[in-house]
Write a structure and sequence with these properties.
Blueprint lengths: L6 E9 L15 E8 L5 E9 L5 E8 L3 E6 L15 E19 L6 E6 L1 E2 L2
Antiparallel strand pairs: 1-6, 1-8, 2-5, 2-6, 3-4, 3-6, 6-7
Length: about 120
């Protein structure tokens, strides 16, 4: 039974990693997260490309999401080909060789009263 759902290309138009945090790391470190669901029977080969306002895109960042699994990827933990700069606006395009579902979450802990937002990414095709 094929349980794949989702799309092969997603976009998150808004991204920003605050420069500082209030609380113990890593749990309360300010971050952006890309939550990826692969409900298919095949591992998903996923690439991320990061876009900026004032310079060329960076990527691809490559990862695998195992079949019938989920993966929560913190953007501030990406290092190859380069770390994503803090205090810089960016956007991302996520592409996969099998259908996936992508959700975006941000934890902003710059002050003691934390802010958490989440939204489904834009399914491009």
């Amino acid at each position: 039974m094929d349980t794949s759902i989702g799309r092969r290309r997603w976009a998150i138009a808004e991204g920003y990693i605050p420069g500082h945090s209030n609380g113990p790391e890593p749990a309360m470190e300010s971050h952006e997260t890309c939550c990826i669901l692969n409900a298919s029977d095949r591992d998903a080969q996923v690439t991320l490309t990061i876009y900026f306002e004032d310079r060329e895109p960076v990527g691809p960042y490559r990862l695998t999401v195992a079949a019938r699994r989920t993966r929560h990827l913190r953007f501030n933990e990406l290092t190859d080909p380069e770390p994503i700069p803090k205090e810089t606006g960016y956007a991302s395009v996520i592409e996969s060789d099998v259908p996936i579902v992508v959700q975006h979450t941000r934890l902003d802990s710059r002050q003691a009263e934390n802010a958490l937002i989440t939204t489904i990414a834009f399914a491009a095709d």
